[in-house]
């Protein structure tokens, strides 16, 4: 599935991922391939991207969370996600 993470200043990430874990108002939620269409608001926390690797141009925005699995995180204050047809856009602050 393809995820794009945007802030008002720059593109944080764009690429193929296995899944993404997001901080929602009612707790963290995980979006995987073939997830139902969703629009949801995000609260402060970390967006965690599960992918084999992150392109060099996006690496500086992420922290690698786990050496065994390829989990990369990006802190957000708030935001919204729209996910449909295995494509997601996260607008983050």
Automatic annotation (TrEMBL):
Keywords in alphabetical order, please: ATP synthesis, CF(1), Ion transport, Membrane, Transport
What topology in the membrane does the UniProt record assign? Peripheral membrane protein
Give a yes or no for keyword RNA-binding in this entry: no
Transmembrane segment boundaries: none
Q: InterPro entries of this UniProt entry?
A: ATP_synth_F1_dsu/esu, ATP_synth_F1_dsu/esu_N, ATPsynth_dsu/esu_N
**Source superkingdom:** Bacteria
Q: Where does this protein reside within or beyond the cell? A: Endomembrane system
Q: Where does the ATP synthase F1 complex delta/epsilon subunit N-terminal domain start and stop, copy by copy?
A: 1-93
Q: Does the keyword section mention Cell membrane?
A: no
Alphabetical list of Pfam families matching this protein? ATP-synt_DE_N
Q: What does this protein do?
A: Produces ATP from ADP in the presence of a proton gradient across the membrane.
Q: Which family does it belong to?
A: Belongs to the ATPase epsilon chain family.
* Name of the protein this chain belongs to: FoF1 ATP synthase subunit delta/epsilon
Which species is this UniProt entry from? Kaistella montana
